[in-house]
Amino acid sequence: MSRAFAIAIAALLLAGCTTIVDVKPYKGVGQGGIRYSLPEPYLLVKPKADGTATYEWLMLPNQENEYAIETKSFLSNYTLTVTTENGFVRTLKTTATNSEALKKLSTALGDVAAQKENTKVDAQKAADTAAKADATSYQTKLSDAEKALVAAKIELAGAKAEEEQYNKEKDIKPETLVGARVNVAKRQAVVDELESRLQTLRAAGGAFDAGIAAAKLKELPGPMLFRLIQKDGFVELRAVALQVNVQTSGTPAKAATGDKPPGVTLSVGKAVTQGGATRVEFTSSADIAVTGSTVIDSKTETIKSETKYEKGTDLKSHVLVITPPIAKGKYTAQVNFKPPAGGGDGTGTLSFEVP
Amino acid sequence: VLTRTTAALAAVLALAGCAGTEVVSLGDDKARDEAARGIRYWQPAPFLFVRSDGQGGIAADIKWLPDTTQKMSIRPYSFAALNTTDLVFTDGVLTSTTVTIDETVVVSASIDALGKAFTAAAKGNLDAGPAAAPNTVPNPLVYKIVIKGNQIALIGGEARGPDGAPAVIYATLPSKPVGEQK
């Protein structure tokens, strides 16, 4: 044994002497150490316009439970690594790990604080984009309808001129004159139909204008944040603040797509002419509300008679009433309908024969 | 003599070298919190979380949340010895460690089973409450499951507004602007 050996032993011992951590409540500026907070549970309730809500538990820091970690070591090679996440201690170990400090915290807090500002900007952008897209689509349809009507009117004028010319000719064949008159009638029918469609489209333009207004920013109740308060023998979810309105825009997805009746089929019953009208009974495979129809004959001509609908014993039974009655023959009706509670349009075809 | 003494002392000290982890329960005692020197964390506690499922029924499940009345302190130490301690915390709760902190085994499965039974009771409370206005969301309910001996208690109830009255959560605009409701 020598003195050198003794010193070496003592040095080895000193090298191992260490206190790993010393954690004290954080008192304020000037206190050293790695700061972290203990989390407190909160419940974030985000209501939706359909009357439901989403619920999310968040862990937010509480300054009343903030601490500072100091390492105290003496001649030690001990390595302390503290990883924090959202201001909370995530890991305390001897090797380094990844850290996502504050990243998720901002996300969580953003649901409450940043949402107001972000939503305003995003909502206005969405409103502008939607309104622009709708305007483009509407203007295109309107322009196409107007062009089609002009073309039809030109053809009608030509047909009328032809008929007038035939009327002046004394030795014209009767079938030629009838053909000219039929042609005028057909052209007139096309013009009437296009004018009707254009009128509908322009009427929808009013709704479109209203839609533009509706597409602009609206307000809906914003999220509510509840703090889970715990005391001895007492637990309560207490709202942090009153619910505030948050701006929004756009059309709810449900209203935009509609509840189109899936796979509704129509089945023809009997068709009879009596009492000054032709009545065609038919049924649907699901409840529907008929909104209109177009009836064409075997020559694909649209009939001139007025069509309306009578409800049957239930929402699956219907009667197509054609006044005045139509002649014997085969016909096809295109029936437009909606779900009884409203929603997207549906169409179906009925083929029937009037005896 | 000196050399022999030093060597012996060194040997004794080396043998006496120790390391470990000190875990102290602080509860919600501020004085003990001030005196503690370890990493603070919460003990977890089971809660029954009940809310509307938006389809005419209710949804309920057990949530393990920090028990903010049960603060803990954990402090690894070493003296003349090597101490490698890994501690992993999730949401302020110690979830992983290389040392054994508590021999108590919490049987999560049992708690989950209890939750199913409690759900029925909670549903009664949800149904018994005043009918929600058409433009509001039904209030969620939270209960802390407290087990003491053979007794099990649910402590809590429906969410409250800032004023302490039952909360009103609007889904669509009420007749009065939000913020003015009472």
Put the structure in a nutshell:
The complex is a heterodimer of chains A (355) and B (182). Chain A is α+β, with helices and mostly antiparallel strands. Chain A has five helices and 16 strands.
Please provide the count of β strands of chain A: 16
Lateral strand order in the biggest sheet of chain A: 1-3-2-7-8
Strand content of chain A: 35-45%
User: Portion of residues in helices of chain B?
Assistant: 10-25%
H and E order of chain A: HEEEEEHHHEEEEHEEEEEEE
So what's the oligomer here? heterodimer
Overall geometry of chain A: elongated
| Percentage of residues in strands of chain B | 35-45%
User: What low-confidence regions of chain B span 5 or more consecutive residues with pLDDT below 50?
Assistant: 12-16, 100-107
Q: Classify the secondary structure makeup of chain B into a structural class.
A: alpha+beta
Strand order of the largest sheet of chain B: 1-3-2-7-8
Would you write up a description of this structure?
The complex is a heterodimer of chains A (355) and B (182). Chain A is an alpha+beta fold and 355 residues long. Chain A is built from five helices and 16 strands. In chain A, helix 3 (114-168) packs antiparallel against helix 4 (174-215). In chain B, 23% of the residues lie in helices and 41% in strands. Chain B contains three helices and nine strands, in the order αβαββββαββββ. Chain B has helices at 2-16, 30-35, 108-128; strands at residues 18-27, 39-52, 58-79, 87-90, 93-97, 136-137, 141-148, 151-158, 169-170. In chain B, the strands form three sheets. Chain B has a five-stranded antiparallel sheet. Mean pLDDT of chain B is 72; it is low at 12-16 and 100-107. At the A-B interface, helix 1, strand 1, strand 2, strand 3 and strand 5 of A face helix 1, strand 2, strand 3, strand 4 and strand 7 of B. Strand 5 of chain A pairs antiparallel with strand 4 of chain B, so a sheet runs across the interface.
